[in-house]
Description:
Strands 1-2-3-4 form a four-stranded antiparallel beta sheet. The chain is built from one helix and four strands; from the N terminus they run ββββα. Strand 1 (17-21) and strand 2 (28-37) form a beta hairpin. The protein is α+β, with helices and mostly antiparallel strands. It has a single domain, classed as SH3 type barrels (Roll), CATH 2.30.30.700. The chain has one helix at residues 61-107; strands at residues 17-21, 28-37, 40-45, 51-55. Helices cover 44% and strands 24% of the residues. The chain starts with 16 loop residues before the first strand and ends with a helix.
Amino acid sequence: MSFFNVYSHTVKHSKDSKVWIIQNSSKTIDASYISLNEQLVYLRDNKTQRIVNLPITDFSMEDQFLFLKQHELSERINQKQISKIHLETTDFLDNVFSMLNKYFKICF
């Protein structure tokens, strides 16, 4: 069994859109990068709007590098979001416990 986190957002992927070159063939795909997961690259085809996935090794070395850099950036952003949520939750709970502690000291 495998688990992975996916973080959704509403930003369009137009900045990540380009014509990607498939190695060892004359094929290209005009698509927007979505994600990299378990060595599969997920793209949204700009013509059909369908999600396609291909092994990262099917792409040129330059494109593979771009996918890996984007993946690394996404991981860092997502990790910061998780840390921020954890800290906010911890601060909130600390405040709640502090208030409860004061309340029970007053009542008893």
